[in-house]
Write a structure and sequence with these properties.
Elements: E1 5-9, H1 15-28, E2 33-37, E3 43-48, H2 50-56, E4 67-76, H3 84-93, E5 101-105, H4 116-132, E6 146-153, E7 156-162, H5 188-197, H6 201-207, E8 213-217, H7 223-230, E9 234-238, E10 253-256, E11 269-274, H8 280-292, E12 296-304, H9 310-325, E13 330-334, E14 342-348
Parallel strand pairs: 5-6, 8-9, 8-11, 9-10, 11-12
Antiparallel strand pairs: 1-3, 1-4, 2-3, 4-7, 6-7, 12-14, 13-14
Helix pairs in contact: 5-7, 8-9
Length: 353
């Protein structure tokens, strides 16, 4: 059996946006495919040649996909008394590949969450059966493909595969982060997730350390400033509103009551971060100006999206950002788990990666 397409997880309610993104990107890459999506389901099927589509649509380039899987089979009408036999047959028909890990999951949606107990218990039952047939290693092997079984109902499941390096390492693409007791706001989780998922290991190691400098535009109440200061960065927090008092206790934070669209640093900074609530096009142009003027070496910023045509607005704003910057940039944009009606962008000149 050849793979039948891609299975991509997303935030519930954003299925039309992910479907539009996959359709446009596949067409630009010259690959045939069509999306099948249901609003609030938490996933999108993109049907076609799964292996070819996977190569044409690398995970790092996708914005609205939390996870990208190569779809191997869809099984309906599963007998609750024996779901394992048809699943083993489907996996064998898909090539009998040996996998380094099994992930049994369910969509992150109102309909999917009640399936968590089934996913957990079924995974415990399926693992020994897979190992007995040589389809799963005795212990997790991060170098081998991962096998995914995604239940969308008790009798309906997808079988899929992910490749390390071209997918998220967590079930459903959701990193498990917790709000620190001292965090000024839950927005701190957005920056922590961005640093974990959008920034590569080398950049994190070299650029998030004592002595580095940063500006936080629209800083109040101080969630993103607090994250940077915890890494040892000296942060200039720009906002006319107040910061939580304990954010200033680090001794690494200077709070300036100024407008983030007007303030500029006296010397180049290592980082600029921005989570201002403003029209995304205006933010995109301002972010590009920071790179054009050489005010920062890398940046993480959010773009608040409209309620409709969010993929089209995303493309428009990223184009505005590149045009405003006027220089080559590596960028990764993603709707993170802790984002809501927004996407997060990490940008850096190629030589800095």
């Amino acid at each position: 059996m050849t793979s039948t397409g891609l299975l991509c997880h997303c935030r519930a309610g954003f299925e039309p946006d992910l479907a539009a993104e996959l359709t446009d990107r596949a067409a630009e890459a010259g690959e045939a495919g069509y999306a099948r999506a249901q609003r609030d389901s938490g996933f999108v099927e993109f049907l076609g040649d799964g292996d070819a589509l996977s190569k044409a649509l690398p995970f790092d380039a996708l914005v609205f996909a939390r996870q990208k899987l190569v779809l191997l089979a869809e099984l309906r009408g599963l007998d609750p008394k024996d779901r394992i036999t048809p699943l083993l047959a489907a996996i064998t028909d898909a090539g009998g590949t040996r996998h380094g890990e099994l992930i049994v999951e369910h969509p992150d949606s109102d309909a999917g969450k009640p399936l968590s107990g089934l996913a957990r218990s079924f995974g415990n039952a399926l693992r020994p059966a897979l190992r007995k047939q040589g389809l799963l290693t005795a212990t997790d092997n991060p170098r081998l493909p991962r096998l995914h079984v995604c239940f969308v109902a008790g009798d309906h499941a997808f079988v899929a595969r992910s490749q390390p390096g071209d997918s998220a390492p967590w079930p459903l693409g959701i990193p498990r982060l917790r709000v620190h007791a001292d965090a000024p706001s839950r927005s701190a989780l957005k920056l922590e997730e961005a640093l974990l998922t959008l920034v590569d290991d080398t950049t994190r190691e070299r650029q998030l350390q004592d002595g580095k400098t940063a500006a936080d535009l629209g800083a109040a109440p101080g969630g993103w400033t607090w994250v940077l200061a915890r890494h040892g960065l000296r942060v200039t927090a720009i906002d006319n509103g107040p910061l939580r008092p304990h954010v200033l206790e680090h001794g690494l934070v200077e709070h300036l009551r100024a407008d983030g669209f007007r303030w500029q640093p006296q010397r180049p900074l290592d980082w600029m971060v921005c989570d201002m609530v403003e029209q995304p096009a205006r933010v995109a142009v301002r972010m590009g100006e920071w790179f054009r003027e050489g005010w920062c070496r890398q940046a993480i910023f959010n773009l608040k999206l409209p309620m409709k045509k969010r993929w089209q607005e995303t493309r428009h704003c990223l184009d505005l950002f590149r045009d405003s910057a006027g220089l080559p940039l590596d960028l990764r944009a993603r709707q993170l788990y802790h984002d809501r009606e927004e996407i997060t962008v990490f940008a850096v000149p190629p030589r800095r990666r």
